[in-house]
C-alpha cells in the first residue's frame, strides 16, 4: 500500500521538554494520532496500527497505556455492521439452525 509523509513543525523547546529526538517524537505522535482516531471510531484497529507503524496486536496492547478500550470500538464496528444489514442472512434464532 502506498504511503505518504506528513511534515509537522515542532519547536525545539517541545523536544527538549519531552527529552525526545525528532524521530522518536514523530513516532509517538503517529501512535497518539492512531489511538485517538481509533478511539473516535474513524479508523479500524488494523488501519490505526498501520498508521502507528506496529502490528495490530501490539497496537491493541498499547491502547491500555492511553486508557482506551480495544473492545469498545470493536463493539461499535459490530453494531454498525448489524445496523447496515451486513449480517441480514444470519439466522434470527440465536441458537442457530436446527
Topology:
Blueprint: H1 12-18, H2 22-39, H3 45-52, H4 56-62, H5 70-83
Mean pLDDT: 85
Strand composition percent? under 5%
Oligomer: single chain
Distance separating the two termini: 44 Å
Based on secondary structure, the structural category is mainly alpha
Gross morphology is: elongated
> What helical percentage do the residues reach?
55-70%
The stretches of 5 or more residues where confidence is low (pLDDT under 50) are none
Q: How many strand units?
A: 0
* Biggest sheet details: none
Number of helices: 5
Q: Give the H and E element order.
A: HHHHH
Radius of gyration, in angstroms, nearest whole number? 18 Å
Structural description of this entry:
This protein is mainly α. The chain is built from 5 helices and no strands. It has helices at residues 12-18, 22-39, 45-52, 56-62, 70-83. Helix 2 packs antiparallel against helix 3 (45-52) and helix 3 (45-52) crosses helix 4. 11% of the residues are buried.
Amino acid at each position: 500500500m502506498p504511503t505518504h509523509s506528513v511534515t509537522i513543525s515542532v519547536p525545539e523547546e517541545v523536544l527538549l521538554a519531552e527529552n525526545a529526538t525528532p524521530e522518536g517524537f514523530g513516532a509517538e505522535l503517529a501512535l497518539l494520532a492512531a489511538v485517538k482516531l481509533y478511539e473516535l471510531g474513524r479508523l479500524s484497529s488494523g488501519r490505526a496500527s498501520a498508521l502507528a507503524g506496529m502490528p495490530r496486536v501490539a497496537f491493541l496492547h498499547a491502547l491500555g497505556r492511553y486508557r482506551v478500550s480495544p473492545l469498545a470500538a470493536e463493539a461499535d464496528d459490530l453494531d454498525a455492521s448489524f445496523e447496515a444489514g451486513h449480517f441480514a442472512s444470519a439466522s434470527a434464532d440465536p441458537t442457530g439452525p436446527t
